[in-house]
Amino acid sequence: MLQRAAAGLLLAAATSLAAAATPQAAPPMRFILPSVAPGAEAQANYFPQLLRLALEKTAGPFSIEFYPHELTTPRRALEIRRNGVINIMWDGTDAQRERELLPIRISLVRDLNDYRVFLIRKEDAARFRAVRTLDDLRQLSAGAGVNWPSVDVLRHNGLKVETAVNYNSLFPMLKAKRFDYMPRGVHEAWAEEQQHGKEGLMVEPTIFLHYKVPFYFFVSRENRAMADRVEKGLKLAMADGSYDKLLNGYPAFRRALTEIAARKRKVFELELPSGTAGGSSR
């Protein structure tokens, strides 16, 4: 009887040790993205797809979901800093953002974000054709989001800027003549023209602004494992060609590349403020 009881205890102990030695499946790495602003769906869908592509190149389960409510850019950065309702975002970089968040230093749109065209009122087309120098442009005012990296660059170069907290507020402000033009990434502008053209807005056809603002994924500075995985996946996608295939699959990006290659626009080079995190985009 005692021998059978001892044997039973030994068997139970062995079973417990075996169970303890069996590795548990790792939980999925959970990515919570900001919702896409109304009107920007076609262009912004690229970034979640690029994130998925990068994660599929790396080992381990993951999940991607969207926070259901729209957040302003400052609120997005705040939520990531405090590990709040989202934990990853994509945007142009600047020194403050890189101090507060952890940038994944691979440019998500190559150098397309470095070239800016203007969304303007159609009635002002001749006015912009007459702009020959940066001093001419300084007589007009730009509109931008309050936390956009381009605001500091524009002001550093003596350009007047009006700001709004909400991206979608900028279009009625432009229409109402609160400012004269909206500098937009060359990959963004034509989708916005398509949406707002009936309101009397158009893409200005003669001017480029050029300044280096790489577009990165950002996560909390505490989420190093998340950053490392995304960076590894992006590098693998670049190496095997799947990054370029995805980028070139979007008409907005193809249009932007064609516009840059045509070399038909005046190019105004802007100087970056001291300490701006323009860095190299890989």
Largest sheet: 5 strands, mixed
Low-confidence segments, given as residue ranges, are 1-22
Name of the level-1 CATH class of the largest domain: Alpha Beta
Coarse morphology: globular
How far apart are the termini? 72 Å
Given the helix and strand composition, which structural class is it?
alpha/beta
Strand residues, percent: 15-25%
CATH architecture annotation of the largest domain: 3-Layer(aba) Sandwich
What is the chain-wise order of helices and strands?
A: HEHHEHEHEEEHHEHEHEHEEEHHHE
* CATH topology term of the largest domain: D-Maltodextrin-Binding Protein, domain 2
CATH superfamily of the largest domain: Periplasmic binding protein-like II
Integer tally of domains: 2
In round numbers, the mean pLDDT is: 87
Task: Explain this structure.
This protein has helices at residues 2-21, 41-44, 46-56, 73-81, 95-100, 125-129, 134-137, 149-156, 170-175, 189-196, 224-240, 242-248, 251-262; strands spanning 29-33, 62-66, 88-92, 102-104, 108-111, 115-121, 141-145, 160-164, 181-185, 201-203, 207-210, 215-219, 266-269. With 282 residues, the chain is α/β, with parallel strands linked by helices. It folds into 2 domains: 29-110 and 214-250, D-Maltodextrin-Binding Protein, domain 2, CATH 3.40.190; 113-210, Periplasmic binding protein-like II (D-Maltodextrin-Binding Protein, domain 2, 3-Layer(aba) Sandwich). Strands 6, 9, 10, 11 and 13 form a 5-stranded mixed beta sheet that branches. It has a 3-stranded antiparallel beta sheet with strand order 3-12-4, sandwiched between helices. A two-stranded parallel ribbon has the order 1-2. α3 (46-56) packs across α11 and α3 (46-56) packs antiparallel against α12. Mean pLDDT is 87; it is low at 1-22.
